[in-house]
Amino acid sequence: MHAPCAHDAPLLVPAPVEIDMDVADEFGRHLTEAIAAGPRRVIVDMTRTVFCDSSGISAIMAAFNRIHAGGPLLCLAAPHPRVRRVLTIVGLDLLMPVHADLDEALTG
């Protein structure tokens, strides 16, 4: 589900179109696997994501909480405006970078 990379390159994890209770556990497993691979950065590509409920937020937060000091940076890229609003309301944008687009995340 995620693109392979060297430790210095970011690892991309594509997010589903809708992150809800039907897919949140699987999505969370993919994030956990990405973090365990040991990259310096894990970028959640939310380019296609148009909906994210509390189970999706929980999956992202669980992945964030698995990162220890010196672990990879977790960031989100290109969330739809409605999804970005949810991320802002719950304060995820204060915990991790939320980039406007994928190019910005890749160069950030």
TrEMBL record:
CDD domains: STAS_anti-anti-sigma_factors. InterPro entries: Anti-sigma_ant (IPR003658), STAS_dom (IPR002645), STAS_dom_sf (IPR036513). It holds the Pfam family STAS. One of its GO terms (molecular function) is anti-sigma factor antagonist activity. Residues 18-108 form the STAS domain. Belongs to the anti-sigma-factor antagonist family. This is Anti-sigma factor antagonist. It comes from Marinactinospora thermotolerans DSM 45154.
